[in-house]
Design goal:
heterodimer, A: alpha/beta, Rossmann fold, 6-stranded mixed sheet, 16 helices, 44% helix, B: alpha/beta, 11 helices, 14% strand, tryptophan biosynthesis (chain B), amino-acid biosynthesis (chain B), RibuloseP-bd_barrel (chain B), Aldolase_TIM (chain B)
């Protein structure tokens, strides 16, 4: 295998207005265009500023704990056709998920732009916690919008955000999940844009967000590629990641985009199963449209009304997806498959029991996918999996799902 | 009538533009409310132009009043095909209807078919709050083909370059958002509004309408002093909710006196 540079060439960047083929762009109110132009310009400058690059690098190393480890999961592999399964341990980052990579980069940009206030949306709470963390570190005011349904199923993360000094605003409109939290954050942003930055948590939204968030997460793929080479002496046959908005997936995929022999496989939440209609399988079941600033695949009805997504995992419960994934799907470079709640929870349990690692339920979708890929590839296969977050936040959901705590006792301990 | 003719006919005053969502509270109910908005009351005419909103699942630039009304319309079973019927009803009542819609329903329907069917239904133009001209190639073509005016928005944050670009792409009128924020009645129209109208006029001869925050005849008169159109939305919904068609008719007449009064002084 060659060991050429893992730097992603300019060729994978969108055009200057943020288009990945027919996807991306800016489907935003005019009132926000000025702020996005400012952000794009500042990001361009920052990328070329050695001081910014050094400061971000320092924070990623000394604060977030990068590089994250690559762990071979040998006992788990027995459940995956005997293929070698390598876990990219984003769960070991500070705050417990990949989200910190993006948040630290954007928070440094906020400071450069001279803004004092940060708003963000969160689904599972991982991005909200990461944002609240960076705001505490850099002394920025922080407001987190979170669907009311999610504040209930992720109550622990709400407490974490508040402890970190953030204000958490539950959103009761619509489906009261991630999509509605983004709507409310956008309303705040359009009102307060002169002193507020919207720290978007996934590789979606209007340009420059999809490109910028992806670039801030590319470090996952760059490290994983080198670590996989060091550990196995070759590139993996496949890279597996879960896809909600798609930030962890685009981050790891980018390390391998120029390795045509490496399959890039994204796993979308199948919820109660595709036939039930209750799922979040945007790329597999959706059609192109515009939502939250970009053209991309969406779950929508025949009138173009956005559908309500569902997943047992709050972080994947989203009817849209980052535009670059739509482009990778259409171009055929990446494949997208579906893992339903039950299959994900099975993988959640298997990894916990075989490796002593409790994954986030989001990441369990990628692990279930890796089990399938491993069986398809057999013992000669190598699969690198993005273990994007840890599962501590999901214990309430898991306890209910597996019946680990008797109902009454569970109520008492709340 | 075209929008150009409507504004020309109002030459000595601002045009009054009233917004209500199609399908609110029901499809038939919205037709009645729009008729009341057009007719006015007590021999005082109502709105010169009616802005018919297309209810959408994710109305990101709307405040709670319009969010709730459009949500109610969708809950009551509103479908995009009902829009055309509501527009035709408003046109037949002697109104000059334009449609306000988020972009995804148009994208889904097909921009060309949407422009064609709306024009056939009697709409004069379309306001697209989350479509900027930079992304509107297919919309420019569709509206051009079918003779529908396209109304883009400008904001206090728009640079000179963007004002020029947006005004150039617009026809009928340019929609100036008076404040940075979402729709909803406010105690005062932002100070930024007059400045934005003046800045926009430097780039175009098109009429400039001011929306966001207008809720009273006094405010309408105030805006009428510096703009070519006064756009009232959330306040109409509140009237409809509290007083039904009669309240809407009286409110339209009241606002109409407001826009007329200013030049009659």
């Amino acid at each position: 295998m060659t060991s050429r540079s893992t730097a992603v060439p300019e060729g994978h960047d969108p055009d200057e207005r943020g288009h990945f083929g027919p996807y991306g762009g800016r489907f935003m109110p005019e009132a926000l265009i000025g702020a996005q132009d400012e952000l794009a310009a500042e990001y361009e400058k920052a990328q070329r500023d050695p001081e910014f690059v050094a400061e971000l690098d320092h924070l990623l190393r000394e604060y977030a704990g990068r590089p994250s480890r690559l762990t071979e999961a040998k006992r788990f592999a027995e459940h995956a056709g005997g293929a070698r399964i390598l876990l990219k341990r984003e769960d070991l980052n500070h705050t417990g998920s990949h989200k910190i990579n993006n948040v630290l980069g954007q928070a440094l940009l906020v400071r450069r732009m001279g803004k004092r206030r940060v708003i963000a949306e969160t689904g599972a709470g991982q991005h909200g916690v990461a944002t609240a963390t960076a705001c505490a570190l850099l002394d920025l005011d922080c407001v987190i919008y979170m669907g009311k349904v999610d504040t209930e199923r992720q109550a622990l993360n709400v407490a974490r955000m508040r402890l970190l000094g953030a204000e958490v605003r539950p959103v009761a409109h619509g489906s009261a999940t991630l999509k509605d939290a983004i709507n409310e954050a956008l309303r705040d942003w359009v009102t307060n844009v002169d002193h507020t930055h919207y720290l978007l948590g996934t590789a979606a939204g209007g340009h420059p967000f999809p490109m910028m968030v992806r670039n801030l997460h590319k470090v996952i793929g760059e490290e994983a590629r080198q670590q996989t080479l060091e550990m196995t002496g070759r590139l993996p046959d496949a890279v597996a990641a879960c896809v909600g908005g798609g930030s962890n997936a685009i981050g790891i995929f980018h390390g391998f985009l120029d390795d045509p022999g490496v399959r890039l496989v994204g796993f979308e939440p199948g919820g109660h199963g595709l036939a039930s209609g209750s799922h979040g399988a945007t790329l597999s079941q959706g059609s192109p449209g515009t939502l939250h600033g970009a053209r991309s695949y969406l779950l929508q009805d025949e009138d173009g009304q956005i559908a309500e997504a569902y997943s047992i995992s709050a972080g994947l419960d989203y009817p849209g997806v980052g535009p670059e994934h739509s482009w990778l799907k259409d171009s055929g470079r990446a494949e997208y498959r579906v893992v339903d709640d039950d299959e994900a929870m099975k993988a959640f349990e298997v990894l916990s029991r075989t490796e002593g690692i409790i994954p986030a339920i989001e990441s369990a979708h990628a692990l279930a996918g890796a089990m399938r890929l491993g069986r398809e590839l057999g013992p000669e296969g190598v699969v690198t999996v993005n273990l994007s977050g840890r599962g501590d936040k999901d214990m309430d959901t898991a306890a209910k799902y597996f019946g680990l705590v008797p109902e009454t006792e569970q109520e008492d301990t709340r | 009538m075209s929008l150009h003719e409507v504004f020309t006919a109002c030459s000595d005053r601002a045009a009054l533009i009233g917004y209500l969502p199609a399908g609110y509270p029901t499809v038939e109910g919205s037709k009645d409310l729009l008729k009341a908005m057009i007719s006015g009351a007590s021999e005082s005419p109502g709105c010169d132009i009616v802005e018919v909103g297309l209810p959408y699942s994710d109305p990101v630039i709307d405040g709670p009043t319009i969010q709730d009304a459009t949500h109610q319309a969708l809950q009551a079973g509103f479908r995009v095909r009902d829009l055309f019927d509501v527009v035709t009803s408003a046109a037949e009542a002697g109104g000059n209807p334009v449609v306000m819609t988020y972009w995804n329903p148009v994208h889904r329907y097909g921009p060309d078919a949407f422009a064609r069917d709306l024009r056939a239904a009697g709409a004069l133009g379309v306001i697209t709050p989350d479509l900027i001209p930079d992304e509107a190639d297919d919309w420019l073509e569709a509206t051009g083909t079918h003779g529908l005016d396209r109304i883009f928005l400008v904001a206090p944050s728009s640079t000179e370059q963007r004002l020029a670009l947006t005004a150039k792409a617009s026809s009928g009128f340019v929609y100036a958002t008076s404040v940075m924020g979402v729709t909803g009645a406010r105690d005062s129209v932002g100070d930024a509004a007059a400045g934005l109208v003046a800045r926009t006029r430097a780039h175009t001869d098109l009429p400039v309408g001011v929306g966001l925050g207008v809720r009273s005849a006094e405010q309408a008169a105030e805006v009428s002093a510096f703009a070519d159109g006064v756009i009232v939305g959330s306040a109409f919904i509140s009237r409809a909710e509290q007083q039904g068609t009669d309240g809407v008719a009286e409110f339209a007449a009241d606002l109409g006196r407001g826009v007329r009064g200013v030049r009659a002084r």
